[in-house]
């Protein structure tokens, strides 16, 4: 009898200890008020997420978190981003919270004419993605129903606009947002009009990227596009300052003769034809300017310094306008 009673006490103590252990494992440490920001990076696995949660005191046991995540089929379904997780949740509710809650979003505006490096810096400053990750991803193909001319590297196709991103977003998804917007705003007759200009669609975007950087006034964009198209047609060097600026670490107000001699296929003062890639990400006005160029006899232009240009038909007039 005493032996049975002793065994019963041992079982009771063991069972109570087990319940206490489970209770402490299921619930996080005190306090049970407030919330904590949790940043789940796009390449984090469930174990790494559990480590972050435990470090912040949002769960007590990594092992229980991983066990329940697997049982709930959540171990491979966690979304990257920043989440404000309430304190005091039972571990299974923490898992469900992360699965059902949309991550914190940020709005980022990309101005017309930004280069991929400038976009990368702005995205990093907003906490969306690191500069290096974004620039590296630009050279990798992104899945999507895109025309064949939209291929890496994606400089030129990162359409300038205001976007909603989430913190720690996957690089491919960031780029896809830009490409999806580009396809949506691209004129329906773009490829048809480009073919009439004896350009490929990609060449037209390269040209639009140059117009974007050269022109400051909207009504001048079709004129500058026409000048560059005419130079291409007659086999004249484009001599576009913006292609040289693209090669510099920082833009200059006035290029030097030394700058104009930089050895690069992007330097249109040295090489004939278009550069091998876009030098910026053009807005819709510059794209439309290329497929709808002005009808003039201009062959030269020079900046006035106030955003406007003086256009001329002959080199003699051009030299006179430069004084």
Tag the structure with descriptive keywords.
single chain; 323 residues; mainly alpha; Dna Ligase, domain 1; 3 domains; two-stranded antiparallel ribbon; two-stranded antiparallel sheet; 6 strands
What is the gist of this entry?
Helices cover 44% and strands 9% of the residues.
Give the topology string: H per helix, E per strand: HEHHEHEHHEHHHHHHEEH
**Radius of gyration over C-alpha positions, nearest whole angstrom:** 30 Å
Total helix count? 13
Q: How would you classify the quaternary structure?
A: single chain
- Outline type: elongated
- Count of β-strands: 6
pLDDT average, as an integer?
Answer: 88
**Helix/strand-derived class?**
mainly alpha
Kindly give the count of domains. 3
Structure, explained:
The protein is mainly alpha-helical and 323 residues long. The protein has three domains: 23-100, Endolytic murein transglycosylase (Dna Ligase, domain 1, 2-Layer Sandwich); 105-185, 2-Layer Sandwich (Dna Ligase, domain 1); 190-322, no CATH class. Helix content is 44%, strand content 9%. It has 13 helices and six strands. The protein has helices at 2-26, 46-55, 62-71, 91-100, 116-125, 131-137, 171-185, 190-196, 201-214, 221-234, 241-245, 284-291, 315-322; strands at 35-40, 81-86, 105-109, 162-166, 300-303, 309-312. A two-stranded antiparallel ribbon has the order 1-2. Strands 3-4 form a two-stranded antiparallel ribbon. Strand 5 (300-303) and strand 6 form a beta hairpin. The longest helix has 25 residues, at 2-26. The protein starts with a helix and ends with a helix. Residues 12-24 have low confidence and may be disordered.
């Amino acid at each position: 009898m005493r032996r049975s009673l002793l065994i019963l006490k041992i079982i009771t103590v063991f069972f109570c200890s087990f319940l206490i252990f489970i209770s402490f494992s299921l619930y996080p440490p005190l306090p049970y008020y407030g919330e904590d920001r949790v940043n789940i990076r796009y390449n984090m696995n469930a174990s790494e997420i559990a480590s972050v949660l435990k470090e912040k005191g949002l769960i007590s046991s990594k092992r229980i978190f991983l066990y329940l995540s697997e049982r709930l089929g959540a171990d491979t379904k966690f979304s990257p981003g920043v989440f404000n997780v309430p304190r005091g949740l039972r571990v299974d509710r923490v898992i469900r919270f992360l699965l059902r809650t949309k991550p914190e979003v940020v709005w980022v505006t990309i101005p017309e004419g930004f280069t991929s490096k400038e976009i990368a810096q702005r995205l990093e400053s907003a906490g969306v993605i690191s500069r290096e990750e974004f620039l590296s991803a630009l050279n990798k193909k992104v899945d999507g129903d895109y025309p064949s001319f939209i291929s890496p590297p994606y400089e030129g196709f990162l359409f300038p606009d205001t976007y909603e991103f989430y913190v720690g977003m996957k690089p491919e998804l960031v780029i896809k947002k830009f490409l999806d917007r580009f396809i949506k705003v691209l004129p329906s007759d773009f490829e048809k009009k480009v073919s009439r200009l004896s350009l490929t669609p990609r060449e037209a975007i390269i040209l639009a990227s140059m117009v974007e950087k050269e022109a400051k006034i909207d009504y001048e964009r079709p004129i500058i596009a026409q000048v560059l198209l005419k130079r291409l047609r007659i086999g004249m060097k484009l001599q576009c300052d913006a292609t040289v600026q693209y090669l510099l670490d920082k833009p200059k107000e006035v290029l030097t003769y030394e700058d104009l001699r930089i050895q690069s296929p992007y330097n249109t003062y040295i090489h004939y034809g278009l550069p091998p890639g876009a030098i910026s990400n053009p807005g819709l006005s510059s794209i439309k300017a290329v497929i709808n160029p002005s009808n003039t006899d201009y062959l030269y232009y020079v900046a006035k310094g106030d955003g406007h240009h003086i256009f001329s038909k002959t080199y003699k007039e051009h030299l006179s306008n430069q004084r």
